Amino acid sequence: MLIQILKSEDGKTATMDLIGEFGGWFGSDEGFFAKQFRALDQEAAITINLNSQGGDLFQALCIRNLLSQHQGTITCNVLGWAASAATLVTSLPNVHTRMLPGSFLMIHNPKRFLIGGNQHDLRKAAQTLELLAGEMARLYADKSGMEINEVQRLMDAETWFTAEEAVEKGLADELSTSAKVVASVNHETKTVSLGGVALSGGSLPQSFFEEQNEMTVKNQAASPEAAAQAPEGAAVNQPQAQAAIETAIQLQAAYPGLVKELQDQAVASALSAERERMKALDAIRDRSPSMVDKAKYETHADAAATALEILRQDTQAVQDHAAAVAKDAATVADALKGVDSASAPDAGTLSDGVGSEAAALAWVEAFAEDQKEGRA
User: Fold this and answer.
1) What is the rounded CA–CA span in Å between residue 76 and residue 16?
2) Label partner for 323 (CA 20 to 30 A): which of 105, 135, 266, 345?
3) What is the overall mean pLDDT for the chain?
4) Containing domain of residue 351, as a range?
5) CATH number where 43 lies
6) Does residue 45 sit within a domain?
């Protein structure tokens, strides 16, 4: 899943893009989301742009519960579809879900692929799926106001809802015909602002900013102040009517190159971050190959968190070894009570580095043999 969170300069608003499959191979995970989410002002007004087929139930549930803690307003725009686990986000009571034109919502019972094992394993897996389905039905019922039995019937049938039907059933809050996007251009900093969020325009063609400058000059020349100051009889440029960009569709139609550029930037940024994460993990792989592989493909942890976990395990291993040595020493001490000290190896031998362990073992073996024969 591509997870991108952008906040405004004043921190009062933020935009989240949740695009793709929860728990997919590429993109970000719930750990990355949590880190970015915690960096936001907890009273900021958040707008989520969601387009997802679902995916990992527990990752979606984690993101849902993080969002449930937010103190500010949350609006979720369903751009194309919100299906399966993705509906855990749209069904949050504190999220105002808006269905955009042509969007869909789908709910069904959770599935588990590649189930193996004997008959007992299969029965247990079925019981677990029933438990998960019941919990999802309860969450949908809390959002929609429907009875749980009705929700379960819709889930059993794997029901698809049009935007209108999702609102009618209470699974969404609003049928939106225009998701407003406030767009502006800062010519000095070469940045484009969408929804109050400043985005870098460094890779945009210079012609884009030149076109915007030309439009600005024309508008200034056609202003009432310019007309009043013009000499009598002089021609004054008349303002050209310009349609205000209020929806994402209008923005796409007006500036397709800009929209594609921003999309490409987002994907490139996510892939670059993932490559850097993998590279950093490879650098510490010799310390613990199994833990690094787990971080790469299962937990999606970064190198810093993985290195810390390796250090913790190493420390625990040292402590366990020290405890085992102390226990063995106590056992030997108990066995040596009452034994003639002259028969034991001297301290100089035992402190002799490499030879100390061999000397100690030889003496213990001899002592055990004497014990067996009753000589000690």
Assistant:
1) 9
2) 345
3) 76
4) 338-376
5) 3.90.226.10
6) yes
